[in-house]
Every structure is written in C-alpha cells, then in structure tokens.
Here is the input.
Amino acid sequence: MAKGDDIQERLIEFAVVIIQLTTKLPKSPAGKHISGQILRSGTSPAPNYAEARSAESSKDFIHKLKVVLKELNETKVWLQIIVRSELLPVDEVLVLQKECDELCRIMSASVKTAMIRKTKTNNQ
Here is the structure.
C-alpha cells in the first residue's frame, strides 16, 4: 500500500457515509438545504486529497491539503447543525462526527509537517 492510501481510503469511506446520511435527512426546506451543503463539503475531501497527492510542488501540495481541511471543518459544522436542530438522532451522526474530527486532526498535522519540510528545504 502506497503512502497516503490509507487516508485516501478513509476519505472515500467518509464520503460514502455522508452520501448515505443525506438520504436520511428530511425533505423539508431545511433538510434539503443542509443535505446539499453537507453533500458538497463532505464528499470533496477525497478527490481533493487525491489531487494533493499528485501536486506539482510542495506549495501546491500544502494548498490542496488546506482545501481538504477546510472542507472537513465545514462538514464538522454541518454535522453539529444536524444534531442541534434534531434533524437526525445523535446516534446516527456520532460516529461520523468522530471520524470527521479525526480526519481534521490528521490533515492539520499533515499541513504542519508539509510546511516544516518546505521551510527546511528552502533553508538548505
């Protein structure tokens, strides 16, 4: 397995679960709006991470990882809104929230590591 394949797989699985979650949201105006928003933000990290893995430079790589993190952070907020507005039971969202938090931490650490490496490379 190539470096990054495990994260790529987790992001794909996260997107699949987001898709499944959106089918459970109510068909009310609020449900439809949130469904569209979380569908967009929750499914974009996987392809954006794939793009980052084939980045043309360390600057491009860092930028694309930051996009992944931004989308995950947005998804985290939509999940909180779903729970607080009681559109779905907490137990249907909890595992997804935990995975989103974990993916955010991983991406944040990856951005920091990439930035440190870039700085070291530039200073040599």
